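Late entry, evening session. Most of the bench is empty. Finally got around to the prediction I had been postponing all week. Sequence below, unchanged from the version circulated by S.P.
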Amino acid sequence: MKLTNNTKRAKGMTLLELTVVILVLLSLISILFIGARAWKKGSDKAGCIMNIRNVQQAVRSWQNMNAKNVSDAFVLTDDIIGSGLFVETDPVCPGAGTYGFVTQVPDVGTLVMTCSLATTEDHVPSSIAGW
């Protein structure tokens, strides 16, 4: 005599399998958001440093073109930033920081513009020796 098992298993997923799948998907999504946040902070920092570098180079160009010395005064919005000048528009920090400016041509290695996020989020160039 042949014994057979006639119990058929229903097709589909159990509640436990569905829960595990959802948990795996949620953990992958959370890793994606953490990576995106880190990428955004890095791109904000890079954009801010590029703004600082561009204004620094603009001041050095203005200094050379007008035969100005270190400590000579300048007005940033009249001489450097504006339509047809070295920098077309006011620089804006991508990380929502604010910029502070000096009013005199600085020594080499001293920044013309600094970001308010320089201490908290490291919005400062790593080396400014030749600037």
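Two things to note before I forget:
The chain has a mean pLDDT of 91.
The helical segments are 15-65, 76-80.
Will write this up properly tomorrow.
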